[in-house]
Amino acid sequence: MSSLYIDIRDDQWPLVYDDKYNVSFCGFEKFHVFDTKKWRNIIQYLLEAKFITPECLVKPLEAKENELLVVHTKKYLKSLKWSGKVAMIAEEPIVACIPNILVQRAYLKPMRLQTGGSVLAGKLALERGWAINVGGGFHHCSGGRGGGFCAYADITLLIRNLFMHRNVKNAMIVDLDAHQGNGYQRDFMGVPEVYIMDMYNKYIYPRDEEAKRAIRRKIELGNKVEDLEYMLKLRKNLKGALNEFKPDILVYNAGTDILDSDPLGHMRISEVGIIKRDEFVFEICKEQEIPVVMLTSGGYLRKTARIIADSIMNLKNKGLIGCEPINKLEKF
Fold this sequence. Notes:
Elements: E1 15-16, H1 38-48, H2 65-68, H3 74-79, H4 83-90, H5 100-128, E2 130-133, H6 154-165, E3 171-175, H7 182-187, E4 194-201, H8 209-212, E5 217-221, H9 227-244, E6 250-253, H10 271-287, E7 292-295, H11 304-317
Parallel strand pairs: 1-2, 2-7, 3-4, 3-6, 4-5, 6-7
Helix pairs in contact: 1-11, 5-6, 9-10, 10-11
């Protein structure tokens, strides 16, 4: 049994969050392109809308070294004790000048907590039919290498724990972040039990050709893609993927950096387009009775927090999520 697996009350939502998810570098984070308070802002919008109460939320446990070693090499974890290495991963040069003890507390500990949240969300999705980690989705990190603000391989760890501790035989990753998910792709290269569908802008980071060999359904988009083309390709390819492969669980990496004017995604998807995208993924999972776990992943504009909150509320309004436990997945 994973030490990151905890039981929750029937009245709690499988909505995983801790206020310690948020990153603070003595104010330097204000200069980073990433909104390091995005996760708190999502929850704040949900609370202000009276959609949830604080008691509804599930607090995860931090992924400690023994849990991380399920995926990561000792060499990689040791390298994170050097602030220069962390600065390269976080893409924030000033971090190299900060004592590592502060880097651990301000950046890596929140990332480990979000990683624990992803692992827990995998378990909860089996029990409830769905779960959302309001964080995680560190899809550029593999067992031996971090990058792109991703220090821990939470997606790989989520799936490996389900294989080890639950009767899960296979999994599908649907990555709709604007960037290629090269981290877990390197981890699951040549693993037939993990089906990877990745739809991303082919002209931006990381352009990892070796990792692309792990993708079973690859949808490469160009710059300035708009809603109609995006949704047509998503609907066609996700239906096609689920015709080819019947997963025990679907891991949905729901990056919002596809949003129009995002400085790194270079795509032109509207706010409504993102909400409709999430709705379609949850809808097809519900139709086919596939547990789905959503991770919020990338998104580099301040307004993405409100869009994610609106999307979660839309999922509830459409009857695609709720807090009721389910019994149909007893085989897990």
